[in-house]
Amino acid sequence: MARRAGVSATAPYRHFADRDALVSAVAAQGYRELAEYLAGAHPAPRTPDDLAEIAIAYVRFALERPALFRAMFAEPCDPDSEERVAATAAIWEYVHGIVHGVFPGADPEALSVGVWSFVHGLAFLHLDGKLDADDPGAVADRVREAVRALLTASAAMRGATA
Residue 149 contacts by C-beta under 8 Å, 6 or more apart in sequence? Predict the structure, then answer.
């Protein structure tokens, strides 16, 4: 990171206590950028298809910004970093709000965890090469169809138990 910025490897530590604090600051910035990216994909999602577009944007962000995405989710961070905690909470609230808006009768907490986990898994499967990420259109189609399949199966299960 420092080399790309054109400074010595130790220069960032004049501003951050340690590596975890530096990664936390990078992650917080990433969460803010992700929130803007997702809001740009669909500013007011209200349908399952809108939710699928948000999922596509999430995966696309991971593929376009892999180092940042990994810093956000795969690197240890300072658990006491107010900036990172606030940025993470903002993403959680965003996901929670979308899920509540699209599925007002569902348990928003459980469904938010499920949706974020599912989409996050799709992002890392593409990012790690377990699913082909060469064609952005094919990635979007795969994510869209996976979200639809999950939501269709979920609706079918609710109907079968009702």
Answer: none
**Helical packing angle, 19-41 and 66-73, nearest 10°:** 120
Burial letters 13-23, b for 16+ CB under 10 A, else e: eeebeeebbbb
Place of tokens 């959680």: 92
Distance (Å, whole) CA 140 – CA 146: 10
Whether the Cβ atoms of residue 23 and residue 71 lie closer than 8 Å to each other: yes
pTM of the model as a whole: 0.84
Nearest in space to 32 (alpha carbons), one of 99, 96, 83: 83
Distance CA 84, CA 31 (A): 8
Digitized pLDDT (tens) for each residue of the chain, 162 residues in all: 544 545 345 545 556 667 777 788 888 899 999 999 998 988 888 888 999 999 999 999 999 999 999 988 887 767 777 888 888 888 888 888 888 888 888 888 999 999 999 999 999 999 999 999 999 999 999 999 999 998 887 666 666 655
